Amino acid sequence: MTNTEQSDTSTHSTKGSYVTDGKEFTRDTQYIETRITRDGADGYPVEAGRYRLIAARACPWANRSIIVRRLLGLEDAISLGTPGPTHDKRSWTFDLDPDGRDPVLGIERLQEAFFKRDPDYPRGITVPAIVDTTTGAVVTNNFPQITLDFSTEWKDFHRDGAPDLLPEHLREEIDTVNKRVFTEVNNGVYRCGFAGSQEAYDAAYDRLFTALDWLEERLTTQRYLVGETITEADVRLFTTLVRFDPVYHGHFKCNRNKLTEMPALWGYARDLFQTPGFGDTVDFEQIKQHYYIVHEDINPTGIVPKGPDLSGWTTEHGREALGGKPFGDGTPPEAP
User: Fold this and answer.
1) In the chain, domain spans
2) Counting C-beta atoms within 10 Å of the first and last residue's C-beta, which end of the chain has fewer, N or C?
3) Which residue, 165, 137, 138, is CA-closest to 65?
4) 105-124 pLDDT per residue, tens
5) Given 31, 51, 190, 291, which residue is catalytic?
6) Catalytic residue check, 190
7) Distance from first CA to last CA of the chain, Å, rounded?
8) Tens of pLDDT, residues 211-228
9) 208 and 252 in contact (C-beta within 8 Å)?
10) CA triplet 54, 269, 233: central angle to 5 degrees?
11) CATH architecture of the domain with residue range 168-282
12) Any catalytic annotation for residue 201?
């Protein structure tokens, strides 16, 4: 998400400090809340080709937006810029692109687009972010709203056969599930990894695995989190699960068990991974590089582990027996 994953940003090393001694991790959730909408109420109307999504494949919060953009077929309407997996305390950088610059925006650091919006921008430079290519300024970095707006405000540009990720009759249940998944799982792994005391870590660990046990039970009898098709809820959980064994189990000390040792969750994660739009957005090497190199106060050597063995992600999962179809009456996106 950010080069400053915590609310206390008073002390930083070259790459950033993520643990505050003696304290539990508290995420800074203040984002630029401007929205891109059909009516352009905030000054930014939906317009194909105008906006560029900046989303690092390494980051789980950004990975969500890449998945939803692909599932809905918004690739031609919203271009994609992908920063490299590592960054320093200033900003994500475009070191994967020729000359280290985003080919559309012409910038070396995402920070430049934030400063175009506000020269005194005081918070972390986060992904995903959407930039207005006509001005070069960030429109929003409000990651939970970005994917919701992709589903609702950008409907005129959805591909034929795109899934409904926010079915109206399931919206209340999706919101309820998303709230628990965010607080206990998506953010729960960070509360473990960035805990500044034994007490904070122990409490975070217990909360995380209580929630994972709840999900294991829920997914034993149903194929998807809510309803009979993939929804926003599945996207939000998937990006944490796919990082669990390569990163969170060891690096963040979320080690009661591996994902591969929870049968329903492991089958569910493989089912989604093998669904077009999910696994084809995942880059395990970038994921590991990001966490193990950037979080130098947790992993000061910067050594990136060679494991784990990832071959299991493409094995049979058997989840079809639970019913449901990933795209309902729609169709999968074309191969990337």
Assistant:
1) 168-282
2) C
3) 165
4) 999 999 999 999 999 999 98
5) 190
6) yes
7) 24
8) 999 999 999 999 999 999
9) no
10) 60
11) Up-down Bundle (1.20)
12) no
